[in-house]
Structures are given as structure tokens and as C-alpha cells.
Amino acid sequence: MKGNKVTGTRLVQVFLSQSQTPGPGIYEVTTDNSGNLYCTCPGFKGRSTCKHSRFVDTRIKKNNGNYPLEISDRATQEDADKAKVSDDAFREFVIKFGKIEIF
Fold first, then answer.
1. Are 66 and 60 in contact (CB under 8 A)?
2. Strand pairing of 100-102 and 37-39?
3. CA 75 to CA 23: how far, in whole Å?
4. What is the pLDDT of residues 16-37, one digit of tens each?
5. Backbone angles phi, psi at 47, to 5 degrees
6. Alpha carbons 100 and 60: distance in angstroms, whole number
7. Residue 25 and residue 1: Cα distance in Å, rounded?
8. Helix (H, G, I), strand (E, B) or coil at 58
9. Is 69:59 a contact under the CB 8 Å cutoff?
10. Among 19, 37, 40, residue whose Cα is nearest residue 28
11. Pick from 4, 66, 69, 90: CA 20 to 30 A from residue 84's CA?
12. Strand runs labelled E in 1-103
């Protein structure tokens, strides 16, 4: 999955697909500094939009331009501080402690 990552982006949400299609059903929606959304799912590649990116976009619009990232209570302040170091550290934090949406 990391090979599909657009450089200069930050992970916003991880999705687990319930579809019966072959291959991994784990997709990541990321955003860049301009607010553009990207998804690693196959549908996004051809259309530059998908149900995952639309879901994230809708939640951003409903929350005054901020994505309401849901983080587990298991995350400590130290974990959150480490996540601020880089986009890769933030990605690992979201994967480890963020809520995974199931579609």
C-alpha cells in the first residue's frame, strides 16, 4: 500500500472493504496541503473520486474543514506527540490507533 501513496500527503482515514473482490480490501485516503483527497482503491485511479474520498470529503465539510479523526483511548499523549514528527509517523499513528471505517 505504501507504494501507492502520493508523496507529500497525510493519511486521513483507513477503510476496510467488505467486497468479495480478490486482493487486499484495505484502502487509505490521504490529503495534501491544498486539501486534495487521494485514495488507494482501484476506482479512484480512473475517476479521481470514489466512495471513500467522498465519505471523507463529506465529513470534512460537515466539520468546518477538519476531519474528525477518531482515535482509540489506548493512544497516549506520548504516542500523539510522536505522530507530529512526520507524515510517516502520523500514518503509523492513525493505522495503530485510528478507527477503521468498513465499507
1. yes
2. unpaired
3. 30
4. 987 766 667 899 999 999 999 9
5. -115, -10
6. 16
7. 11
8. helix
9. no
10. 40
11. 4
12. 10-16, 26-31, 37-39, 100-102
Helix, strand, coil: what percent of the chain each, to 5?
A: 40, 20, 40
Q: 49 vs 19, which has greater pLDDT?
A: 49
Cβ neighbours of residue 22 under 8 Å, at least 6 residues apart?
Answer: none
**Nearest-angstrom CA–CA distance, 30 and 52:** 10
C-alpha–C-alpha distance, residues 78 and 60, integer Å? 26
Q: Which amino acid is at 57?
A: D
- Residue type (1 letter), 44: F
Burial annotation 49-65 (CB, 10 A radius, 16+ → b, else e): ebebbebbbebbeeeee
Q: Which three cell numbers stand for residue 71?
A: 482515535
pTM for the whole structure = 0.86
pLDDT at site 21: 66
